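Quick one: structure tokens for this chain, please?
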Amino acid sequence: MSSGQLLLTSDLGSHLPLVNRGKVRDIYNVDEGTLLLVTTDRISAFDVALANGVPNKGAILTLLTAHWAKVLCNSIPSLRTHVLTLNLPSNIPAALQDTYQNRSMQARKLIPFKIEAIVRGRLTREAWDSYRKDTTVCGIKIAPGLKEGEAFPNGPIYTPSTKADVGEHDEDISEAQATKIVGTKYANRIKELSIQVFQVAAEYARERGLILVDTKFEFGLDTETGEVVLMDEILTPESSRFWRVEEGFRVGEEELENIDKQCLRDWLVGNGLDGKDGVVLPEVVVEKIEEMYKEAFRRLVGKSFQEVVGF
């Protein structure tokens, strides 16, 4: 994959059957147990894909997900992820290797659970807004007297949501509602894994100068083993909020800079464009997003994106 190469839509249909095009990922069938996930450079916010993309974004997210899968499985022996290999299927022609390598991943074919597993470690943004009203976050009672940006006193909280179809909006739900959707057995396991993974990831990130504020996990069922498997993107700056750790920071007095796509959300809201179709991002915003994603990659992987991909 050449530096700066932009891929908004994949085109592998003559080599593999296309299963689905999501907001940012295209999914192809490899065989009865394997999918090829192609992460394009499309970017979305407020459940809408923007008209233009961010160079290198697809490869950054794919390589970071693969990195996290290794880190987490080493720390949590019972955890399984969907990641199989970053190698392309053998029937992808050599002429396409440069375009699709690093942004593509062969993954286990799973049955996705119809909920999103959101874990929050800090009281900020929409969680802070809710807390200020009645000291609850997504219906969970939180101790009074906390400051904005403070960690939840009893550890990270699990706040599931619905998993909406493309073009629709996810909605916060209670744990009881999540249980009705996926069943008690799987709901308990999803919550257990979500908290466990978040705690391991938060410690790992903190050691590398980042605070993991919150994140969204997705899980699927392996029908052969009956296991709950972590899937989709894992702890990327697209599915998570990270703050850069700053010396002298005091909770409640200032907010640390986000190392994720918050700058995109802020720009859209500031220009009254959140949720609008066909929005074209200015180059300065595109460059800022790429810069943030590359910083998150460098801190979490320990090498720059350029070093890893070889350009």
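The CA atoms of residues 8 and 42 lie 5 Å apart.
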